[in-house]
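Example A, followed by Example B.
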Amino acid sequence: MHKVTLIPGDGIGPEVTRAACEIVAASGAAIQWETVMAGMKAGAEFGTPLPQSVIDSALRNKLALKGPTQTPFGSAYPVQVGGNVYPSVTVALRKELGAFANVRPVKNYPGVKSRYENVDMIIYRENSEDLYMGIERMVDADTAEAVKRITRSGSERIARFAFEEQRKLGRKKLTVAHKSNVLKMTDGLFLKVAQDVARDYPDIELNSRVVDALCMELVVKPESFDGLILQNLYGDIVSDLGAGLVGGLGVAPGANVGPVCAMFEAVHGSAPDIAGKDIANPLAIILSAVMLLRYVGEAQAADRIEAALTAVLREGRHVTRDLGGDAGTKRFTAAIVEKLQA
């Protein structure tokens, strides 16, 4: 039995995570949930949007499934954990759990409207450094500056993680994105480290792209890419671009992985305007749960869920409005459960 910290989150979070839990249960996977609260509701109840108990639970279980959370307004860094301050619950969790790798699969599913076909790649984003370290200052009243920090150790860690994952999945190519034609030291270091690591993986082809050229190629021929390695800022942008290639954030699962803990999450927002109306699309969190199952070795259950949701999407009779149907969250979930039980 795998015990997993469950963070339902805000807005539509409780609805979509409930759907994912029902589907995981129907698959027969040996998962036990430990539910904790983070986000705006937690802030109102506990005085902080991220209680220490949430972090303790995730570290104890070494696994978490997270729904979307809202960031409180009114402060540039509204989330405090111990002596550290963060701009959001999600960023705080990634940092406190040591989750250095953000993993975003980008894949076409039948019945999900897209301009492209045969897209199937994985984006590996370095999660801990770059401009997102938040080292900023006001030089004077008219000038602000930020520090871009890239380390050899951080770059090697994400590169090796990406190569290991590609090898495990039987994939044969990786592309490292950079802007070393301008940022010769920082991006140059990131590129060189990836190239050095590639020598240990002769079975996987590594090529490189300047990040702006990569974006152009992604909207011209995305099916030609197998895996991408990116720094934190570029990865944040390109992973959402990737989601747009296959139908949007509503079909985009994600994971944040570190040496101690792995947190799987839907990357879309909490959509408070549709919360409680039974119209939210739970597909992203279901696919994130599929990633979690594969991570813990429940491959058979993961395959069964993916086959069931693919069948429901292909039929198109019981899907949510954003996917072209008129089913609610509960009916969409029930349709997948019915396929699993057939």
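Example B, a separate protein, is given below in the same form.
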Amino acid sequence: MTNLHTYIEHTLLKPTATVKDIIELCDEAKKYDFHGVCVNSSYVHLAANELKNHPSKVIATIGFPLGASSTKAKVTEAKKAVKDGADEIDMVINLGFFKSQNTKYVSNEIRAVKKAIDRRQLKVIIETCYLNEAEIIMACEMVRLAGADFVKTSTGFGDKGAQLKDVELMRKKVDGKIGIKASGGIKTANQAIAFIIAGATRIGTSNGVTIVYDPKNHEE
């Protein structure tokens, strides 16, 4: 797949990430023409400056990684990220409320964040490793109806990352109406391509350079 780089959101979300690490992440995004870089919100201003003259997007995480902060906190964080230069927002749903069947709260929270970021794309992380099939279906429908642009599998901090069967299920449910971001544990080109075939329209990974550069990862 010659355009694999265009799917990749080059990601660095570890708590020990330094300024130097983020600059290197952005340099790699420029070198390999990734779709964008995904960083914690505190690093948005730095990443935006580093990518000022390059088409790669800056993606900020909100309520990350637990999703348990208040709606007000998520909205405030999202607004600050946009002000700092974020092009897209990846927010984590309140999983505890969702599993308590308080979907009204979760839906309203998604709408509030979407309203706060205006025209920018919103991806909603549902953390599939904690959900059964029925909950994944319900979450996809909720995310779509709340006006988000993408549903995203994972934070990468849960028990498991993206699973092909979950992405296939998500594709059937969203039916092309919104995008799907597969994230968490994707390390090779063959894995990335398999997720794209399964229905992913974006790939979140910290292994972007290896995926697009290392020939052995393109072996059949």
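On Example B: The chain is about 45% helix and 15% strand.
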